[in-house]
Design a protein that fits this description.
- With about 300 residues, the protein is mainly alpha-helical.
- It has one domain: ABC transporter involved in vitamin B12 uptake, BtuC, CATH 1.10.3470.
- It is built from eleven helices and two strands.
- A two-stranded antiparallel ribbon has the order 1-2.
- Helix 1 runs antiparallel to helix 10 and helix 2 packs across helix 8.
């Protein structure tokens, strides 16, 4: 059937694979945004810069400290997450009782500062980072060739995303987090350190963005604008899934990545805007998003 449309199975599955990889990054980044907005009520526009920082810390750990990709995988999210905790304590904690616009403007300004500093130091030509030898090569599936590193990205993203959803929605720790943000006074009365929980939640959301940056380092050229180019799409994903919806961010991220891949096959010119077209349609039909709850 696809041959009649002038499309080979290899081209179709190849674009679907690329769409699933993009969807993996969409899901992880939108998950971090959903956690920060859903639990802290902050629109974190620094998220793209923190994704970029994850990639640059990965590069720095190798070139300045000789630490391989496998060391960067846990260390980069911890380092960037710790920087997020500092940002939360110094700036964002002062905005929780104000309108969303203040948090958006603050985090947007911080993103510009981070990008500007790295642009001045590294330029915009891009820095290379090699795929780790253990994940080089690929598998011939007959209908397509599956690079090992691409499969690794998808596997890690699925495990991290659904593991995070399980912890937040199905465990006692997640219940404490939701209680701390919905009714901090009552939660604090039970002896829980609410400010610490809120700070760690923001740090975890930032660490998710940094982890996506680590995964992106070996397949994308590292440059200070890599987060700015992606964050607008990720915000559209969050809006479609429902602002603050953890499951919506995950399912919509992966799903829209596949839709984008299919669009590249059948109508390449529309692949750059298909997500925004879907966002407009969803907002017309269900303004709260596919998984969002109306007030």
């Amino acid at each position: 059937m696809f041959e009649l449309l002038g499309i080979t199975p290899q081209a179709l599955f190849g674009q679907l694979l690329l769409g699933l990889i993009n969807g993996s990054f969409y899901a992880m980044l939108s998950l971090g945004l959903a956690i920060i907005f859903g639990l802290l009520n902050i629109i974190n526009f620094t998220h793209g810069a923190q994704y970029m920082l994850g990639a640059f810390v990965t590069w720095a750990l190798l070139h300045y400290f000789g630490l391989s990709y496998w060391w960067a995988l846990p260390l980069a999210p911890l380092i960037v997450g710790a920087s997020g905790i500092v940002i939360e304590k110094l700036f964002i904690s002062r905005l929780y009782h104000l309108d969303h616009l203040y948090g958006l403007l603050l985090t947007f300004g911080l993103a510009l500062i981070i990008q500007g500093v790295l642009r001045n130091n590294f330029g915009i030509s891009g820095l290379p980072y090699s795929i780790p030898p253990q994940l080089s090569g690929g598998q011939n599936l007959g209908f397509m060739f599956l690079p090992n590193y691409r499969a690794w990205i998808i596997l890690v993203s699925v495990i991290v995303c659904f593991g995070t959803w399980f912890v937040i929605e199905k465990t006692r720790l997640g219940a404490y987090l939701r209680a701390a943000t919905e009714n901090p006074t009552l939660t604090g009365a039970f002896g829980l350190n609410v400010p610490l929980m809120i700070t760690l939640t923001y740090g975890f959301g930032v660490a998710l963005a940094a982890l996506a940056g680590v995964l992106a380092a070996p397949i994308y050229s590292l440059n200070p604008n890599m987060g700015a180019e992606l964050i607008i799409v990720v915000f559209a994903v969050v809006v479609i899934g429902g602002m603050g919806s953890i499951l919506g961010a995950i399912v919509t991220g992966f799903g829209l990545g596949l839709v984008e891949g299919l669009t590249r096959v059948f109508y390449p010119e529309g692949s750059a805007v298909v997500i925004f077209v879907i966002m407009a349609i969803v907002l017309l039909i269900k303004p709260a998003g596919l998984f969002g709850r109306t007030a």
